[in-house]
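Quick check before the chapter quiz. The format below is the same one you will see on the exam, so make sure you can read both the input and the output lines.
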Amino acid sequence: MAELDFSKITKDPLVAKKIMDYLKQLSKEFGPIKNSTIEIFEDMINYDEKQVVELALLANRITFQGMNDQNKRQEMIEEFERLKSQLKKKDEIQKRIYLWQEGNMPQKTKYEDNSEYKYNHNPDFKPYMFELLVDRSVRPKGAVIVCPGGDHGDCVVYEGYGVCKELNAIGYQCFLLNNRTNMNPWSQEEAGADVARAITYVRKNAEKYRIEADRVAFAGFSNGGLTGEANIRFYSNGRRISDVFKNYQEDEQDEYDGSMDVFLNIYGPRFKKQKISYRDIKYPPVFLAVGEDDKMGIENLLWTYADLKKHDVKTEMHTFTGVGHGKAGEAILGITENENFRQWIGLADTFMQKVYEERNQR
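Here is the expected output.
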């Protein structure tokens, strides 16, 4: 399950135009109600899991199955509204961990209007995290900041909460990041800064979370992978948020390192032949995983892997037969296909622990 731009999966310009016209019409019909539901998907921890999953699956069907039957599409939208109206917050809710102090969020993108529902987040969006922690009886192996793909929204259900639950099950403290999404419409500098701020928060509170402060990994999925690399490009090797945003006022949290210790890049490598400068950055060890039916992902993966190895970045790569794009965390949706892809969790665990052990032996 994934949010895709249909124009990227066809080379026929007439078909692509038909699809884009459909998406514009769908935005008019479904945009207002779906936009009002984004907070439910992203704050799923505070709602009934089964109800939110049902809503996310229906949103996906409306988008992907509603193109050729307007009456059926309207019926599904009405059902979506009915299901949404039944959702209530839990009696005890978890509070958001906002990343930035009021009035001190570094900004670059001029974004003032979302009346056509082009983006999932409105201009007043403030990035935040939720904690998903292991039981107190479990000794944590480290922390993972989890960044879903796309423009977040219903992607957060599986690439966010679904993945966090799987990582919790093998001993990791998780932090679900709802950041300013890369290129939707925010810049790489802003998206990467949100990651840096999340990392410094976890490092500062390492004792509270019972982890070592130098065991903070980042897991990015699809666009979340591009967000992770933005963090590395702009905020690694000692570079701080104030080096990029000159008007940003630092606080004590900024004394901590804002770059990740391990990068889990899941079907989100940079685009083929997109070069970056390695001169002033410190690239962490990278774990890459992509399904072989994810054609663009595979092309990007092979090129990025070769580029990382060329620059002596510790890198491990895995591909999975018969798996397309956007398949992480699907167990929460009740989807039983792509069982082989679920191996990435255990492989990533082994990779992270090996990196930490080797570092400690130096």
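If your answer matched, good. Confidence is low (pLDDT under 50) at residues 2-9.
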